[in-house]
Design a protein that fits this description.
By secondary structure, the chain is of the alpha/beta class. It is built from 8 helices and 9 strands. It has one domain: 3-Layer(aba) Sandwich (Rossmann fold), CATH 3.40.50. A hairpin with a 2-residue loop joins strand 5 and strand 6. The longest helix is centred in the C-terminal third of the chain and has 15 residues. It starts with 5 loop residues before the first strand and ends with a helix.
């Protein structure tokens, strides 16, 4: 059996990463290729509709810290007082049976995996402009203006790490971006034909 591959996907908040991943998973469900989204471990309490092992692996703080000491995580982070991490054994168990696994993590998590020299294909999702990014965050109607401004500052910082990824996908047109991400995973490394255009947009984004 051919071993599965690990795909790391990162993006600033509002770039449409979750929607693109959801579309790729939906398409793959009707194909012969098995693609799954990695399930993270967390110390946060389950919400009413959360399912352990499906939405997250819910751990006590003590258990999480015990696993950290054993270096059981590929990457981990503290977010708003709760810990999140990707379990090595879980990832390896999926890859060993031929499942291609999507790991939805931020730039800091990606850096941790880079330092451990773990084989992966990395993808960074780029928004077409800062104004479009702000518009998408506003449409969510989930944050205060102050939080949105903070997210935009963080977005620019994260965009600075985009060139460390194997591939960059511009999410200007959702259908085109989802086609590109799906084909990249299915065909294992399709080169981006618009690399120059994307580099120009990234340069413009970083100039803000």
């Amino acid at each position: 059996m051919k071993k599965g591959e690990l795909y790391i996907i990162s993006a600033p908040s509002g770039a449409g990463k979750s929607s693109l991943i959801h579309e790729v998973l939906k398409r793959s469900s009707s194909s012969d290729s098995s693609i799954e989204l990695s399930v993270s471990a967390t110390t946060r309490l389950p919400r009413p509709k959360d399912i352990d092992g499906q939405d997250y692996f819910f751990l006590t703080k003590e258990k999480f810290e015990e696993l950290e000491k054993k270096e059981a995580f590929l990457e981990s982070a503290n977010v708003h007082g709760n810990k999140y991490g990707t379990l090595k054994d879980y990832v390896n168990s999926k890859l060993e049976v031929g499942i291609n696994l999507i790991l939805d993590i931020d730039v800091q998590g990606f850096k941790q995996i880079q330092q451990k020299d773990i084989p992966n294909t990395s993808v960074f999702i780029i928004p077409p402009s800062i104004s479009e990014l702000k518009s998408r965050l506003l449409k969510r109607n989930a944050d205060t203006p102050e939080v949105i401004e903070e997210r935009l500052k963080n977005a620019i910082a994260e965009l600075g790490g985009a060139n460390n990824y194997d591939h960059k996908i511009l999410n200007e047109n959702f259908d085109m971006a989802s086609d590109e991400l799906y084909n990249l995973i299915m065909n294992r490394g399709v080169q981006n034909k618009d690399a120059k255009h994307i580099s120009e947009i990234l340069e413009d984004l970083l100039s803000n």
